[in-house]
Amino acid sequence: MGLEDKRVHKGVEKGAPFEITVDGKKIIAYQGETVGAALMAAGQRTLRYTDKKKRPRGLYCGIGLCQECRMVINGVANTQACQTLATPGCRVETQKSEKKRGIEN
Amino acid sequence: MKEAELAIIGGGPGGIVAAIEAAKAGVMVTLLDENPRPGGQIYRQFEKGFKVTDPEVLGGDYEKGLDLLNQFSSLGDKIKYMNNATVWGIFDNNTLAFARNGFSSSLSYGKLLVANGAYDRPVPFPGWTLPGVLTAGGAQKLVKTERILPGKKILIAGTGPLQLVLAHQILAAGGKIEAILEAGNLNKNWFQGLRGIWGNWDYLKEGWKYLRSIQKSGVPLLHNHIILEARGDGQVEEAVFAKVDENWRPKPGTERTVKVDTICSGYGLVPSTELTMLAECEHKYDNLLGGYIPVRNENMETTVPGIYAVGDGAGVAGSKVAIEQGRIAGTAIACSLERISKAFADKSIKHARKRLNRYNRLRKVLDQISMPRAGLYELARDDTVICRCEEITLKEIKTAMADSTTQVKDLKRKTRVGMGPCEGRMCGPALIEILRNHSNTSPEGHGYLNPRPPIKPIALGVLAAGQQKLEI
Amino acid sequence: MFPEEAEVVVIGGGVIGSSTAYFLAQAGIDVVLVEKGYQSGEASAANSAFVWTITRKAGIDIRLSMHSRRLHQQLQKELDMDFEYVCNGGLLVINDEKQMSYVEDHVRKRTEDGFPLEIIDAKQTLELEPLLSKEKTIGAVFSPVDGTTNPIFLGVALNLQAKKLGAIICHHTEVLGIEVMGGKVKGVITDKGTIKTNTAVNAAGTWGGAIGAMVGLKVPITPFQMAVLVTEQLPPCVSHPIMGASYMVEEDAGEKGELGCGLIVSQQTSGNLLIGNSWRNAGYDQRTSQEEIELMARVNVGSMPSLKNVRVIRSYANFFPHTDDDLPILGKVDGIEGFIMACGHNGHGVGLGPGSGKLIQELICEGKTAISLDELSLSRFYSK
């Protein structure tokens, strides 16, 4: 997919890389990146599907206001990917309405 | 005895400069910042883990920001800086509520300064909810601070100088831009703008720098052009745009399609006024400054005594203006707390007021060019989603308007627009304009979506852990 | 064009006023509804959305509730617009033995009156609502006829249908006075003009006293501020309206104090949870306070701990029209022909709205009502 490798290394050195799991698959993230940014770099831009019409949504405002980047992160639904730093081994899932709740099981 | 003599909400240039001025005069300042580090949007700092190896690449704002932030941190013993603190309400008895470290708290203040900035104007157009359409501000945060390009083939569509800054940053980061669409016409207003530009050489110099870098790169900068549609199967694959008249309405027959994977929508900013509205400050609608703004006097005090507002959150005018307003407010507050005399305050602020007047002259010119015109809010079609959270289309809104509804709040009750987790931020500005276009009246006649606490979503567990007083 | 004349003017556009206007229009009456504020009014647009009978007392209280509940069902079929009435049954959750004995007493009285209630054990309760705290739940009253609705949409649906049937619905129209001559209503004066009429229905809820004063009546309705939290949308996780028994105990005690809260939770069709309710001695202050927001969260998370990560996206508050005996004021008044009371529904306006509207329509059109309104007249407050 042509959208990978969008990381910019010029002028700013990134921290240490590590793996995170997205929908069961492993991708690389760097220390200091948000989950949203790491997904963007990996070429995944659909972060959730809407409740009513099941439409794909992704990053829009980037500063935590639009609520479009809500994903299930480490089991907690409705977690904003643009506001959550990626951490080694964190589990990220594309949020779909039938599947997950904002509730601990 | 209040917990904070002066509480400042917001860690951007306005808030930081006000904190510095007040602290220098001996005021005990507490600054609440929702981010992990001060700087706001424009001087946003890197997360832990990133190391700057070549500041040149990051542009002038980065260095200016560093200077300011160093001044701020050097006053660490006089300014209590609380990071990751989300202010979610303003209540009686000079109290604000904030969430931090997993629990909710309250803070009582003597004086309050609201400097919580603005956000990108959400402009509904067909396909705007597709992954790959993001705001210019969102794209800028990705490129500048997270060092990630938002796409491989980018279209920038919007108005105003911020677009040029974004374009420059993307090019400097090695990104590819297909075109930049500017809805207004910067060239045409050159002579009209001369008076505004006179004296504002620093602005001009920056502007020229960005323009030249774009010219050199060969990226087409199309004046009088607007985005019409984003298309694609599940994400952006192409964009349709057209030439527009002076009301930003597309001229028939000028539509063009371009293959892109990303559209950065940058049609100005909207002031965040939830807190000043909750605090019952009087607001007025100003099209040039982004929408509803608090009414203020020359010292940046709102109509509620003791509550001040500066920066983009009180009227979009950029960081230079925010800084001077911060200076004026910080000094005026120190004076009102009798830390400095009025004569001393007036003298200190004299230069700030002069600079502010100079900047405001240029701002008026820029704002005239970039002020949203009628055509911007006519881009949506019947099947375009207006309320992103609740997925309400323009058609549903028009149906609700059919019985001559004029109030935004009535639309909300009839259709659920504004009832989602974004709390009306993404649809509110559009609803006012849709109603205004429809009934051809003043924007204030339509009311606005009332902010209600918590003004940002807060988890039940965080609220439940509340009732813990701030330890100083 | 502002209407200059009507057979009936209904004052108040909440669920009670809107139901009244709808049933009148359905009966062929030329009706105008005036509401001073926004679509669906005040308390009707800011409550917990329960259509509830469990805690209603034996006697006229439960009779009214059952009658109105059946009309919710009827309206759901009759109105073109869906207002999301869902009837899965309701739960009154019991947390300790003191509450249990209070509830058993209530159940006994209701059963004697012919409106029985069933107490189920902890296991059955948790099967019905798995999110309830296992440690704190010892049982519940389950009532299969209880449910929830979308009261704002109910107002919209009633107004839309009434208009189709010829009614005129005016929002943002404030009543300034009522013309009475020779003991008869002659017109309703609003800020948009005067409507000539011989019949005015006072469905002004918490403002029922102000409207009553316009015809020289003392109407003992006082504002009772209650607040609710709204969460973000979730997949179905709460299927019944849930009330904590402590709420009922305190409601009956009548001692509300400065600030308090009882467990009230339900899930709207849209997926949002409505969590509450706190009450605050706040006069006509419609704002929510930090204390009550945090208190509601604490009470809720205490009873349903797995909701702790769910985010609250707003709060709202409004005033329930409080009467001392917790019953509404319905019916004609002595001395003023054509002035009809239909307000003071305390916290039960949503449930009782359609029923009240139908009874008022019957009163106006036929002179007699399916349930006698004698116990509910305004004069009960003055005859000692």
Task: Tell me about this structure.
The complex is a heterotrimer of chains A (105), B (472) and C (384). Chain A has 105 residues and is mainly β. Chain A has one domain: Ubiquitin-like (UB roll), CATH 3.10.20.440. Chain A contains one helix and eight strands, in the order βββαβββββ. Chain A has one helix at 35-42, and strands at residues 12-13, 17-22, 25-30, 48-49, 56-57, 70-73, 76-80, 91-93. The mean pLDDT of chain A is 89. Chain B has helices at residues 13-24, 60-74, 136-144, 161-172, 194-197, 201-217, 274-278, 319-336, 342-370, 394-401, 408-415, 428-439, 460-464, and strands at 4-9, 29-32, 51-52, 79-82, 86-91, 95-100, 103-114, 118-120, 133-135, 154-158, 177-182, 221-223, 225-231, 238-243, 256-259, 262-266, 269-271, 283-286, 291-294, 307-309, 385-387, 392-393, 458-459, 468-469. Chain B folds into three domains: 4-119 and 270-348, FAD/NAD(P)-binding domain, CATH 3.50.50; 122-267, FAD/NAD(P)-binding domain (3-Layer(bba) Sandwich), CATH 3.50.50; 380-446, BFD-like [2Fe-2S]-binding domain (Arc Repressor Mutant, subunit A, Orthogonal Bundle). Chain B is α/β, with parallel strands linked by helices and 472 residues long. In chain B, helix 1 runs parallel beside helix 2 and helix 8 (319-336) runs antiparallel to helix 9 (342-370). Chain B contains 13 helices and 24 strands. In chain B, a hairpin with a 6-residue loop joins strand 13 (225-231) and strand 14. In chain B, strands 1, 2, 4, 5, 6, 7, 20 and 24 form an eight-stranded mixed sheet that branches. Chain B has a five-stranded parallel sheet with strand order 9-16-10-11-12. A three-stranded antiparallel sheet of chain B has the order 13-14-15, with no helix packed on it. With 384 residues, chain C is α/β, with parallel strands linked by helices. Chain C has two domains: 8-63 and 151-220 and 326-381, FAD/NAD(P)-binding domain; 90-144 and 222-322, 2-Layer Sandwich (D-Amino Acid Oxidase, Chain A, domain 2), CATH 3.30.9.10. In chain C, 30% of the residues lie in helices and 28% in strands. Chain C is built from nine helices and 19 strands. Chain C has an eight-stranded mixed sheet, sandwiched between helices. Chain C has a six-stranded mixed sheet with strand order 8-2-1-12-19-18. In chain C, helix 1 packs parallel to helix 5 (151-164) and helix 2 packs across helix 9. Chain C is globular and about 65 Å long. The mean pLDDT of chain C is 95. At the A-B interface, strand 1, helix 1 and strand 5 of A face strand 3, strand 9 and helix 3 of B.
